[in-house]
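Dear support,

We are seeing what looks like truncated structure output for some complexes. This example has two components. We would appreciate it if you could run it in full and send us the complete token output so we can diff it against ours.
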Amino acid sequence: MSKDRSEEIRRFNGPLRGQALFAVVFVVAAVLLLSQLPSETKWAKGTKLFAQPRFWPAVSVVGMVVFGGLHLWKLPRRGFQRVDMIEWKLWFFAIEYVLWFLGYVLLVPIFGYLPMTVLLMVSLSYRLGYRGRFMLWVAALFGVAVVVLFKGFLSVKIPGGALYEYLPGAVRSFFILNF
Amino acid sequence: MDLLLSSLDILARWDVLLALLVGSIGGVLIGAIPGVGPAVAIAILLPATFSMDPIVGLTVLLGIYGSSMYGGSIPAILINTPGTAVNALTTYDGFPMTSRGEARRALSLAYSSSFFGGVFSVICLILFAPVLAKIAPMFGSREIFLAALLGIILVVIAHRGQSLIAAALACFGIFLHTVGLEPVKYSKRYTFDQAWLSSGVDLIVVVLGLFAISQAIFLLQGQDEKIRLTKLRGGMFQGMRELARHPRVASASASLGVVMGMIPGVGEFTAQFLSYTYAQRSSERPEDFGHGASEGLIAAETSNNAVPAAAMVPLLALGIPGEALTAMMLSVFYVHNVVPGPQLFQNDMDFVVALYLALLILNVFVLIFLLFATNQLIKVVKIPNRFLGAAILTLSFVGVYSLRNSFTDCLIAACFGIFGFVLKRLSLPAVPIVLGMVLGGIMEVKLRAGMARVKTPFDFIDRPIAMILFLMILGVLILHFRYVWRDRKSLKEAKWQAKHKSTSFAAQMSRRKDFLLTERGKKLREKRSKYTPRSTGKNSPR
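Here is the complete output from our reference environment:
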């Protein structure tokens, strides 16, 4: 006899799509971490239980397995449906913006903070569909403002671009220090 | 008096005042833009404040923390979208007022209530500070461990209906804290022989990933909304007069905000919920709540603004953050070698009072700014969401990369960004991870120190405060399990009520079978009775 879970689904806090996969991956990861507990932590002889280097990793990983497992067990729907696939696709496509971010991180030390920030803002705005001249100018100005504020005024630690080395004398050091 | 003067002396510097001004106005702006919020802004600005003086860095962050809720009420009232999560309750009564053409009255009332809540809590805490200074030294390792444990339990059970996954995520946070070299025995924990994991997972990297990058991805993947703003008519000062007509609701809400703010892990949502419920129950017209009741707006805004100052109490007195924002601030303290805890209250009381005074001054700055600049400020609501996403992604880089100029940090932050994005899509909380990381570290150190002098388990709670905290933990757990049991019971009842005879197929088949058998039985008995008539005494042969 199949169990009627419509009441649990109605009472569930949040969307159901994607929950099952998240819970399964979480529990599997926690179980894998638990299996690595003996090799990845040490048991110090002659030390009390609460001072053991293994104590807190064990508490946390066991907690992840137990609570994650209970969460999975209490889910109103554990099977996968078409709506879940759509959700997974959304998660997957989010990687595009992570790649934009990582590309930016890799290129800043080569081309410099100012040129890359302006380029990122303008190209990302173009990619997002803001193709009018006004929005592209706003994006470029925002890039300049961020660099001037953080590197120029607040002096955050971001190295000058390798390309700045080719600039003439005084301009070179000005760019390395401020942009 | 001397204490107040020495605290004012700490603040009487142009850079501190500038930081206050920038933080408060910046906080209002950030709060007014739906989709940014103080957590994102503080996460991004955190590394930039490391190079500043502790008081300057902290005032900027405090400014953002304390003033973002003022700004958050603007979109909540005008376009029914809360600027920060804690302004959600403001939409209940704020937006209906806007729909009636009373937008300016609602805004004015929200500002006045927020100001009252902020100032009330700061004054309470300044008066309460000497008492705290006496209580704080009574907290030893065991008490701090128990307070941290209570904080983590409260954070978990505050996520009603999601407490299991919140507990799992809090454990994940504790696990993240344990990765790297163990500080006493110097043994590696979960490094998988990777050099980049030896130094552990940085809290700021995780925070930036979970709050800033995830929010950027969330906005980038979303859609821009068309926003129509209402024209503001009327005076901005009428809110003060209206607030004065509801002193009971305002003071009760502010008091609830102070009390709830001081308890780690509880925060604005509970304070607002309790205040709103109180205001509704004690109102002469409870039916107006949710349809533009001024008392509802006062309760929501007063209580949420009373929380930031109160939330600084467990952070400063015990070194225990009660929420993600104060957890981020804790890292600023550590960077500047200012260790929050009982010693801070004993030795640097003027520093603590200076922070409270800073909060008081920022409330004044924000109110003045809002009374005169609301007309211009409401335009920030129109910034397209996806463009905001691109801006947050660019700003996240500053936060992560400026820490150590490390690509690995950025990669870890990006991974946590995806993880945070998935959590957001599933409406699961990210805060337990951050608090697990911070409180996990505190619990590990304090439990080790506390257990060193303990012979029997009862020794751990033989001091009065330890016993009170232990009883509080027990009480909270009992209340939670009672709630779970009641919830389960009501679920069963709802199921039974919804389940009538026709819903179960198997039961229907069973009834059909019984019916057929009965019918068949009747027929058979009838048939047999024809051939073998029932014997009666009259017909029977003698």
